[in-house]
Amino acid sequence: MELKGRIIYKGKAQGEALVTSMPISFYGGVDPNTGVIIEKGHELQGQSVKGKILVFPQGKGSTVGSYTLYRMKKNDTAPVAMINKETETIVAVGAIISEIPFVDKVDILEFKTGNKVTVENDTVTII
Question: Could you say which of 11, 45, 50, 106 has the lowest number of CB atoms within 10 Å?
C-alpha cells in the first residue's frame, strides 16, 4: 500500500514500524541514551524507537524535545524515519536538525507495529 504525505524532512529509509495512537514527548518521554520510551502509562513504554520507522499522531511537550531527538541521532538511538498524522514544531525541528526522514499528513491508522515500511520523500509504502 502506498500513501502520500507532506515532506517535513526529505530522505529515504526502510524499517519496521513502531506504531502508537498516543503523542510522544521526546524530552522526558524517551531515554536519549537507549531510545526506550520511558513515559509512564504510554502504550509504548519500555519499547525502543532505535532503528524503527516511528509512527505516531504528533509530538508533545517541551521544545527541548527537538534537541533530545538530535542527541538521539548522535547516540545512534533515534528512529530511522518518522510518520505523523499532523506534526508540530518540536518534532519537525528535531527531525530537520537530525536529518531524519519525516512525513506527515498520513493516515496512521493504516499502520501496525511490525509492518515493513519504506519512506521516500513524500511517499510511504507498507510492504
Answer: 45
Confidence bin at 92 (pLDDT 50/70/90): very high
Query: How would you classify the pairing of strands 53-56 and 123-126?
Result: unpaired
85: CATH: 3.50.30.10
Domain count, the chain: 1
In whole angstroms, give the CA distance from residue 118 to residue 94: 20
What are the cell numbers at 103?
A: 512525513
Across the beta sheet with 53-56, what order do the strands follow? Answer: 2-4, 123-126, 116-120, 12-19, 53-56, 81-84, 102-104, 6-9
- What is the pLDDT, as a whole number, of residue 70? 98
Distance CA 115, CA 105 (A): 19
Residue 88 and residue 99: Cα distance in Å, rounded? 16
Catalytic residues: 62
Q: What is the pTM of this model?
A: 0.97
- State the pairing for strand pair 53-56/81-84: parallel
Domain range for residue 22?
2-126
